[in-house]
């Protein structure tokens, strides 16, 4: 698969939540993963992102993630070049260097992958099946929650609770 890079978990990771736990929390907030096909029009992708209030969509063909299309892709590859979103397929602007993680990765590792690769969205794939899409915001929110919990535990320890 062109441009697909997958990160698998190892057993020596930190105690932060796993991607599976984070996706479960997201699904409890009734956020299903929305996708689009590479042959669909950019305008359809924009409408779906606006309707669902999301910033990116995994591009799926034949059940496999073949790319990711984002508002940023649209701005850089359409607006700035004066192209029309009506007759342009998603495949013309999607990012094809797809880096995925499995559900056992932890939040800290995912943040590192996203930072090192300048990504804002990270598809979660297990056995070739798309499980979800994590945004940098999802990961930062979780990391802040983990830090707040750690601070509370340390304060309790210092007080002798």
Automatic annotation (TrEMBL):
Pfam families according to UniProt: CBS
InterPro entries: CBS_dom, CBS_dom_sf, CBSX3_CBS_dom, Diverse_CBS-Domain
Protein origin, superkingdom: Bacteria
Gene3D superfamilies membership: CBS-domain
SMART domains for this protein: CBS
Occurrences of domain CBS (ranges): 29-85, 94-149
Keyword Phosphoprotein on entry: no
Keyword tags: CBS domain
Entry-linked CDD domains: CBS_pair_bac_euk
Record-linked PROSITE patterns: CBS (PS51371)
Family annotation (PANTHER family): CBS DOMAIN-CONTAINING PROTEIN, CBS DOMAIN-CONTAINING PROTEIN CBSX3, MITOCHONDRIAL
Record-given protein name: CBS domain protein
Source organism per UniProt: Pseudomonas cichorii
Taxonomy of the source species: Bacteria, Pseudomonadati, Pseudomonadota, Gammaproteobacteria, Pseudomonadales
